[in-house]
């Protein structure tokens, strides 16, 4: 029997097709790929929301919760807001941007004195004019935006656009970066299961991958869908937009502006003490004082949603200013017997205390997230020199068809016995939406296993392992 079924040991990855009952234009397919699964592995429920990105149809999709995305700007509002940013440009450049096929995916416009202006799109840079930028061009743009703060950032009232200035040694503006801001409904729905239970969430990623877009949607989701008291501490008015009236993209969430970026940690404590929030949303934690304030807030039982610059969790561990977010790192000297039992040197690094956040998300790109469901476990695993377990969530859009997939990477130690067990699949149907079809196959990690390893076949409800 084993010889007849040996070809099953080299299949394609386990695939689950999950088709929602949506209009044909927005019908979604959900694919899940599971690698090596140890005992008691569970199937996470599948979400069909769309993460951050700039496809034009995103604004038309609604959330899976009872509350729809009506609180976010519709397509017409996005057109108006984009037009207000393009109004900063001279007529010739504005017309050339409007003719570009990727107009609605515009990332930013760069104007440097004496250089050709550039518009940056996902496909690359696009020259807007053969004539270099003049002082008059810069003055025309700066006259239509708000005042530049000490961090050289300004905005356009009631929009999410960010205008950043470059100054010379005398303080005169010689360059502008006009960054497009968008409130995209559904951009955070791949993380809905992580925030709805009240867990604190830390998003890590390099600049430009959509961290602010995601936490803005999380703030709206928590305030509108889950009726929580949400307070946003908005350092540079990027989350709630410029001006005293916040942008509609944050829904019913409230917003506190930070007069000086160096005082953000004080505004965090003030928000907790004065306004009794259930959720605090912070963008760009970057100093030790801010990390300490976030840790203090977490100890008061308040849910935190924050971002930090970095690529992976390891970057936070190695950053002395932000290591407190993951519990802090300390060196510990082990006894001879304990060091021998662990198989390590006598001096090792360990986590000092509890992490400020319960979950961590590494934003790889606008359509790929790497989820660490237990941030403390991930940190402990990294400090012990092993690879942490994580879950990859991806989004693929082809025209009007949106496909999401999840891939779980489970790393086991060498002394653990390899087993391949799948938990009850019917439980998955209770968590998901619509009809579920199961195609039983074997984990691709088994492709390298040979008969010499004596993998015993196991007959389960959904296939042979």
Automatic annotation (TrEMBL):
Which one of the record's GO molecular function terms can you name? ATP binding
Report the SUPFAM superfamilies cross-referenced here.
P-loop containing nucleoside triphosphate hydrolases
> Which top-level group of life is the source organism from?
Eukaryota
InterPro entries according to UniProt: AAA+_ATPase, P-loop_NTPase, Spore_III_AA_AAA+_ATPase
Pfam families assigned: Spore_III_AA
Domain AAA+ ATPase: from-to ranges = 197-328
Q: Does the keyword Lipid metabolism apply?
A: no
Enumerate the UniProt keywords alphabetically: ATP-binding, Nucleotide-binding
Q: What is this protein called?
A: AAA+ ATPase domain-containing protein
What are the leading ranks of the lineage? Answer: Eukaryota, Viridiplantae, Streptophyta, Embryophyta, Tracheophyta
């Amino acid at each position: 029997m084993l010889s007849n079924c040996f070809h099953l040991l080299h299949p394609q990855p386990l695939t689950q097709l999950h088709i929602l009952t949506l209009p044909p234009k927005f019908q979604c397919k959900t694919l899940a790929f599971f690698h090596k699964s140890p005992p008691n592995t569970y199937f996470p429920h599948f979400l069909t929301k769309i993460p951050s990105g700039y496809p034009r149809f995103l604004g038309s999709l609604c959330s899976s919760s009872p509350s729809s995305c009506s609180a976010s700007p519709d397509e017409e509002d996005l057109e108006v807001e984009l037009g207000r940013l393009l109004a900063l440009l001279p007529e010739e450049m504005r017309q050339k941007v409007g003719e570009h096929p990727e107009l609605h995916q515009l990332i930013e416009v760069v104007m440097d004195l004496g250089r050709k202006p550039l518009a940056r799109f996902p496909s690359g840079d696009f020259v807007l004019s053969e004539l270099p930028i003049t002082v008059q061009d810069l003055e025309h743009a700066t006259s239509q935006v708000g005042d530049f703060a000490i961090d050289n950032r300004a905005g356009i009232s009631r929009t999410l656009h960010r205008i950043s200035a470059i100054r010379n040694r005398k303080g005169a503006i010689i360059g502008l970066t006009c960054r497009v801001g968008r409130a995209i409904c559904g951009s955070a729905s791949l993380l809905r299961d992580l925030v709805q239970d009240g867990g604190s969430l830390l998003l890590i990623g390099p600049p430009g991958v959509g961290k602010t877009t995601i936490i803005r949607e999380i703030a709206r989701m928590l305030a509108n869908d889950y009726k929580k008291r949400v307070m946003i501490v908005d350092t540079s008015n990027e989350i709630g937009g410029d001006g005293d009236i916040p942008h509609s993209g944050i829904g019913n969430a409230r917003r506190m502006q930070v007069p000086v970026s160096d005082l953000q940690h004080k505004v965090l404590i003030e928000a907790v003490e004065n306004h009794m929030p259930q959720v605090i949303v912070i963008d760009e934690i970057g100093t030790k004082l801010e990390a300490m304030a976030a840790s203090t807030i977490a100890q008061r039982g308040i849910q935190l949603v924050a971002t930090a610059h970095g690529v992976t969790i390891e970057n936070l561990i190695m950053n002395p200013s932000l290591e407190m977010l993951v519990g802090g790192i300390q060196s510990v000297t082990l006894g001879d017997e304990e060091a021998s039992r662990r198989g390590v040197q006598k001096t090792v690094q360990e986590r000092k205390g509890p992490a400020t956040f319960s979950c961590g998300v590494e934003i790889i790109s606008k359509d790929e997230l790497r989820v660490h469901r237990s941030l403390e476990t991930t940190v402990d695993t990294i400090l012990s020199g092993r690879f942490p377990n994580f879950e990859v969530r991806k989004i693929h859009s082809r025209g009007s068809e949106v496909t999401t997939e999840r891939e779980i990477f489970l790393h086991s130690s060498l002394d653990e016995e390899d087993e391949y067990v799948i938990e009850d699949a019917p439980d998955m149907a209770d968590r998901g939406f619509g009809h579920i079809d199961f195609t039983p196959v074997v984990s691709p990690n088994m492709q390298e296993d040979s008969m010499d390893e004596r993998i015993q076949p196991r007959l389960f409800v959904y296939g042979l392992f």
